[in-house]
Amino acid sequence: MLVIAVEKQRYRVYSDHLKEKFGGKVYKLPINLPGTCPNRDGNVGTGGCIFCDEQGAGFECLPSSLSVQEQLAANRDFFRRRYKAEKFIVYFQAFTNTYLPFDRFREYVLAAAEGEDVVGISISTRPDCVNDRYLDFLAEVAGEKGLDMNIELGLQTVNYHSLLRVNRGHTLAEFLDAVQRIKGRGFAVCVHLILNLPWDDMTDVVENAKILSVLGVQYVKLHSLYVVRDTVLGKMYEKGEFTIITLAEYVDRVVTFLEHLHPAVVVQRLVGRGPYDRVLFSNWGVSWWQVKQGIESRLEELDTYQGRRCDYLNGPALRRRFGPGEE
User: Fold this and answer.
1) Which range of residues forms the domain containing residue 271?
2) How far apart are CA 89 and CA 193, in angstroms?
3) Among 106, 98, 214, 75, which residue's Cα sits nearest to residue 154?
4) Residues near 35 by Cβ (< 8 Å), separated by ≥ 6?
5) What was the pLDDT predicted at 53?
6) Residue 264: exposed, middle, or buried by beta-carbon count in 10 A (0-12, 13-18, 19+)?
7) Is residue 327 one of the residues assigned to a domain?
8) Pairwise CA distance, residues 83 & 201, whole Å
9) Is it the case that residue 209 has pLDDT exceeding 50?
10) Tell me, what CATH number does 177's domain have?
11) What is the domain count for the chain?
12) Looking at residues 106-119, what average pLDDT do you find?
């Protein structure tokens, strides 16, 4: 039944999933905490990822100087008025949230867990900043409050050499360890990927989909690489040290990724967007919505869908030799 449903709508849409799961309109409330990243403070590295600036991924968030309660109140009011939201997932978005000292992390999470309209908490972090103490605490909160707990992991790519090029400061091994620990608590995992890194090709795109499918992660967010002024990547871009694939090529990469992705994985995002006042390149000069529409149109044009080529699990060589059901 799942494959049939995905084929009809081409891919598993996050908003539909939330409505089915929680019985109403659900939106994420972004929260900006005063934190940093081990790839900036010298613990793992300095300077951060080459595409990241001082604001991290939280350029659309409210100032971190506001308390969690103040940010929740402002965002809750905005999403209710603009989108008629009924329920909310609190989303700790910017930087590496589990890199905070445990007591401060605990304080912020407990503050976020209040409110009858809060149905879940989503925490963005790095694969090398996931450990048992923090996960055990989150399991307690989820159990006591009846909340849906999600951990969002920035992976970007499974390509080891590309991870080095973008100065991620971790490898695939840390990611695999983090996923196992998170899933061991019964939490959902959302993986962030950039499908147009200059050093990746279609082979990496397919392998991204395969690794996520094998691991059984629940969610994925796809990003299109944007280039921010005054970052390492920005300086490389201005010097012409790399090229970015065309919009048509990005669309084809997303379509191919979806075809190889297990149909159970929910797609939270097909394309990202950057801080418009600071970007040198973002989405080929068109809106993120146009990119999304281009991807959906391409799926229709090819009459294809998520999971169509997900045929690599459960001993494919045996199936090819003996046929289905005769392994």
Assistant:
1) 2-310
2) 21
3) 98
4) 64, 94, 95, 96, 97, 99, 100
5) 81
6) middle
7) no
8) 38
9) yes
10) 3.20.20.70
11) 1
12) 94
